[in-house]
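We modelled each protein-ligand pair independently. The example shown here corresponds to the adenosine-5'-triphosphate entry; the chain sequence is given first, followed by the ligand as SMILES.
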Amino acid sequence: MGFAQQARDAGFDLGDRDLSTESWLVVLDQRQCIATSNEECFALIGKRPEEIIGRRLGQVVRLGFLHSFIVQGVSFTGQPIWIDGVKHFCDYAPLGRDPHASGGLFTLMRSEQLDIPCLEVPDLLCSMDAGSDLARESLILVNTEGIITMINQPFADVLGICAGEMLGKNVRSAYPNSNPSRLPVVMDTGQAEEAEPHLLNGRHAVVSRYPLFREGKMVGAWGKVLFSDVREVSRLAEKFQAYIKLPEKPKKGRRGRGQEFKYDCNSIIGHSKAMKDLKEKLLRIAQRPSNVLLMGESGTGKELCAHAIHAASKRRYAPFVRVNCAAIPDHLLESELFGYVEGAFTGARKGGQVGKFEQADGGTIFLDEISDMPLVMQAKLLRVLQEREVTPLGSTATRSIDMRVVAATNVNLEEKVRDGSFRTDLYYRLNVIALEIPPLRERRDDIYFITKHLIDGFNAEFEMTVQGLDEEAWQLLRNYDFPGNIRELRNAIESAFNMVTGSMIRAADLPLHIRRAAGSLVLPCLDGDRQEGLLASIGQKTLQEIMDEMERQLIQASLERVGGNKLNAANVLGISRPGLYKKLHKYNLQ
Ligand SMILES: Nc1ncnc2c1ncn2[C@@H]1O[C@H](COP(=O)(O)OP(=O)(O)OP(=O)(O)O)[C@@H](O)[C@H]1O
């Protein structure tokens, strides 16, 4: 009688497992005692089945760490164990969904029989956080090829299947009724993804994924389900709501018009130290009434920070009013800011207009591009900041205003003060708290997280399921300087969404200027038109002709770069002056 039949006769549910291998197969009962075993054990461990039936598996082979895995019902594959100095690999999977009630199937084979990369248990134990509870938390682990090497039943329960069925499958296609696993992406990027939503078995779960490294080398990845249903998160949030002291939402009225804030500190994505520090400062200063000056290049997120300050302050339910000082023509700025009464000037609206300062009463006014405010208006703004009251155009009645001022600039205001185009007194009034937002190129770590955030956003907006970027595309983004900062990154990803054909954004999907900047079009020293001209000649000209053309263009570009000085051009090119002359003659260059 075959082993499988024996095991089934003994009451073990082996499902449709294929047991016709050369391996030693052991069915264990609930106490990890050997219930039945095939003949191959003699070849592998030198014992006959009848000698070991009824004994604990741990008494027959030295299981080491794996013992606790088996006890906890964790399924694993390809784990090395040593028998008489010979390396073997073993697999284990409980036979049913309840590992403690059903026993399991243990398989042992010689190392040469295994053809998948091995991920050893110590990797797992060293790299996974020590607090992970293998028996209760929902865990999965894959090797570098994405093969499921270890999985426990709580994880498989989320997917509604038996853990043993998942073992050895490629995780890319192993999840039924779910979005594809992102563990391969985590291995591509080397970046952990924590507390992210993921569709598993038809429900949105909250999961974390981590790459596994050993001695700096990627050896796999692991993931865990934090909540099998996102609704659990809101239930928990409700439970703890009472412990979080939020400012009371004011009743509708003049001070609080019940307006909700659009962004808050959580909208600012960034895990770099610079951004963590910045967010901490934003939250701290939000509690104080002082004016704030936000400085940073265009697109670094100054407006987002202004929103975050407002949202974290006690003014959060009052209005946030944005004024772009550069966008409003000088002659309209005063009426925009101060408002006017009916008949104040020709063309004034019937009933007048409430100015931005008054609109911001009780809340925050964000003065963007403050450096562009004309000097006359600067004087008027200074008065408002000092007196905290405004007089609409055409009126004699002053109105007191309670607002917080957050101003932003992407030029150096000190220089403006020096050249006389910005008032010193206003500068010091605004500069009570100054925050500098670093450009993206100085916090490259954030590129990954912001990109991921953008991908999620565009997936939702465009109803697409882009998974991420391939390694080459990541490389381009990581190395690009982003002069337009996050705004430019956003545009780049949006543009890629319009180009992408598969589930991953490739380098070719990214905007041309990003590819060019990385020199990915082969010739970094030539400008775009020259590069394209050369590339277009592939197939039209011979290699020698293209090389000659390239040499001619490189010489010309070098001469342009050194202002036509031939000695310098020869030096730049690393050739002798006579050598350069010869080539100038050959290519008929002056
Ligand atoms: N840390 C960030 N996380 C997520 N999105 C960001 C971040 N910083 C900026 N953004 C996004 O980038 C875009 C530009 O940001 P924002 O308008 O706040 O920049 P800015 O510094 O005020 O630019 P400008 O000086 O040109 O007005 C917006 O779409 C914003 O939502």
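The chain has five domains: 1-115, 118-244, 265-436, 440-517, 528-586.
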